[in-house]
Design brief:
The chain is an alpha/beta fold. The chain has one domain: 3-Layer(aba) Sandwich (UDP-N-acetylmuramoyl-L-alanine:D-glutamate ligase). Helices cover 31% and strands 26% of the residues. Strands 4-1-9-10-11-12-13-14 form an eight-stranded mixed β-sheet, with helices on both faces. Helix 7 packs antiparallel against helix 8. The longest helix is centred in the C-terminal third of the chain and has 16 residues. Bound molecules: adenosine-5'-diphosphate.
Length: 289
Amino acid sequence: MARILAVGIATLDIINLVEDYPPEDAEVRALEQETRRGGNATNTLVVLSQFGHQCSWAGTLADEPDARLIRADLARHAIDTSAVEWLPRGKVPTSYITLSQRSGSRTIVHYRDLPEYSFEHFRAIDLTRFDWIHFEGRNVEVTQRMLERVTKLHPELPCSLEVEKPRPGIEQLFPYPDLLLFSRVYARACGFQRAEGLFDRVRAQAPTAQLVCAWGEGGAYARDRDGRGYHTPAFPPPRLVDTLAAGDVFNAGIIHGLARKRPLELTLIEAARLAGRKCGQQGIEGLAD
Ligand code: ADP
């Protein structure tokens, strides 16, 4: 069991389940509608908490009714929110998600009007309370200051960074973490059709990090510190139900394995198995059972 802090966002997800993804300008009726808490960092924490880790979240919330649902969900999963930065104005980030029953794909329209977590709040956290720190690679400049602080004051503290989307300057964060978690979206946006190409390029910027890249139904790839590469196929569920947050669940699987000092190769397989299980169910409850 590890004590894990994640810095990133919590969102409100409004999910419409439709039979088929609609064409533009169409009007369709949703089969079901559900409102859930989402956001990469908090999703990953919820899964880590199911595995028995002691989880804390550092992020922002606006003082408005929708924040209550988020807070209640985090409390239900025993996630400590004492480092949360409460803001008097704004709206919690909201994702409007269209989930296609036929393909399991999720199409997202995102709205946010909330500042990112500040360095001042981060500086107030006692990092000696933690065994692992995970960052959602969002606000590059501020995240860099946070990473600098972690590596300078607590060089022994393992630290991971999720790189989900191309953001200007995000590469300048690569030298700091012990673990880089890339997405296929990021790899492709950098012009790579294979994770290995991305790893080759990133290696120069992150000479000592473990590199991982999820590849949807193509499974996932990793490269260890000695340059050995690994691949796991995906583990398709009996019926594909919902791929929303599969990447967050996969990242939780990787952190869960490495925080327990399991080998990268085995951890990669276990994380893909966990993410596959998630794709066979709605939501991210009960994944550790
Ligand atoms: P994201 O949710 O960020 O789009 P991916 O689509 O890359 O992330 O999925 C993350 C992981 O989830 C993959 O590495 C894979 O192990 C698993 N996964 C994703 N889609 C499927 C699928 N259709 N069947 C089985 N496993 C899947």
